[in-house]
Amino acid sequence: MNRQTFACMVALNLAGALGVPVQVAAQAPQAQPTTIQYFLINLGAPLGGNPSLASSVNDRSWVAGGATTADSTEHAVLWLGSALDLGTLGGPNSNIAWPNPNNRGELAGIAETAKQDPYQENWSCSGFFPAITHNICLGFVWQWGNMTALPTLGGNNGYAAGINDWGQVVGWAENKTHDPTCAPPQVLQFEAVIWGPEPGRLQQLPPLHGDPDSAATAINDSGQVVGISGTCDNAIGEFSARHALLWESGKPTDLGNFGGVAWNTPTAINNQGEVVGFADLPGDQDGGLNPIAFLWTRQHGIQKLRPYPGDANSLAWGINMRGQAVGQSIDASGNSRAVIWQDGEPIDLNALLPADSPLYLTLANDINDRGEIAGQACVVAAGVCGAEAFAVLLIPTHATEAGITVLAPSATSSRTVVLGESVRRQTLQRVGVSHLGGTR
Length: 440
Prior knowledge:
This protein is mostly beta strands and 440 residues long.
């Protein structure tokens, strides 16, 4: 399916909404590159609730993520012309929360079963669903209408994050060990794993020496895996991410950090072995999230991808083969803007839309090799940003193309939107915290 065909099909499913008034703050003009232009698609609220989020876009323009249903649960969604509800494993919720670069029609994510966790753990899935249910959550692989649960290491819960073109899925899974480093209600130890590519195959990846727990977040087509290791903690970031890791042939390497002892998290790796993510600054001994996005390369090691000027924190979520990284830049109040780092410099994606655009981009979560970006936006009308947050797809174009409406960039102005409380809370919930702290 080519870019134009996909854009026209998805355009049939556009959705918009009026919002609750919040302040729109003007910012000093700052020059932005004018060579990039985007066709912007609002993927709307396909399951009847709010919000929705596009977490992934592969090189076939398959957009995947999650959407809230009319009964306030969340289901994994594939936008393929129209939105497909991928269902669950019998429980109330499912989601595709990380970039899935697989181009063979496979997706990896998380879904709840109908069975309750005997230990009533919150588990890692809790940060990616609307509410904590204490249903057992497992990783899954979806292909052509079939959702298949992935096995654990003998424990109750699992989590699938990324998948490559060979069908290898990475994530983490509980074993039967009662880990004393867990923070209640977490009980069981968990380790990084690779599932597949053969059905039933499961390989455990070791944590860094001295750490009891680990988790894998992404894998490239060469089999290089990135993730975290640390203590069990609450099984979602914090001290579980004391170390950012790269596994090659099953052996872990510490990617380094910026002086923080928590939240050091790689999120994506491209086929050239370039890694992006975020790492805490010093002063996080209490586990507080105070991150700066990073780019790691074998040649230069770990380097900061700084926030947009004036903002306090940044997080990178995706990277393509051209080394373009995308993510979000967050100000001291927790308000988020979507950014792309070009040659290491942050560009506010909102500055590449018309000044009167009805959408304000809060998050860029993935970017494919053609430069298409999946993320999230809120609706702005007459200077108002509403509480609704919608999945979006940005398609780059450098000239007017047949069948494509080009949104011309704004070369001389940029703005930030003080988000509604519900949108701000969704942004912070994504990384499992109630606030961000600190400065660069």
